[in-house]
User: What shape does this take?
Amino acid sequence: MNALYLFTSEGLMALAGYTSADTLFAFDLDGTLAPIVDDYSAARISELVRVRLERLISLAKVSVISGRSRKDARDILGFEPHLIVGNHGAEWPEDSYLRNHEFVACCTAWRNQLHEQLDGIQGVEIEFKGESLSIHYRRTIDPQIVLSLIESAIVDLTPSPKKIAGKFVVNLAPEEAFTKGEALMAAMDGFGLKRAVFFGDDITDEEVFQLKSVDLFGVHIGKDDWTAASYYLNSQSEMLDILDYMIMIIETQGRMRGTGVF
Ligand SMILES: [Mg+2]
Assistant: This one.
């Protein structure tokens, strides 16, 4: 089923049906809340989006589920939502029972093994992120050959990692680590919420959109045939209006409740 454009009367009505103070509002970060930029380390959310998100967290539970480390995600956001899950679902807050320090030990071992195999290959960069690890190869002259070298180095890793696809990057995480889909379910469970709205643009966000066992309203950023999300936005810049719309609905619900109409 192809996703429908969210900015239609039908799409906005459907979103309104999911928008309330007892909904979990969950977001991917890069390409969803923050625009994609050439310099990966320079990503930031706009001031306008940040102000809306701070308003939203005063009305409902907000979670960010990102491939970044929690620390990087917090720096990009410039504020603290109710929950940040980092490393593609693998990294949870220090006080969470889902925090697993063995994942970090596992990625440390992989980093050392990969340095032995891949050091000296032009343009390959190993980024250690704690609970996951990224091998970047965007700057290589022949990405196909370099990718095959990376793939053969991964085959030799012990324990065997889970591979997470990306553009000119291979991400590795422990087999037992949560996917983004499992992370969203655990977040809903932790907050005791039965309904969620999720926005994302990555291949890994499909793990969320494909969830069958939760009451989810999924929005993919970008018009792509392959997404399992029910709705899409044309671009990241449309997030601002959608945030305003969701805030307006929850605030209206609150006012109606206050006057006894609701
Ligand atoms: Mg993204």
Q: What stands out?
A: The longest strand covers residues 215-221.
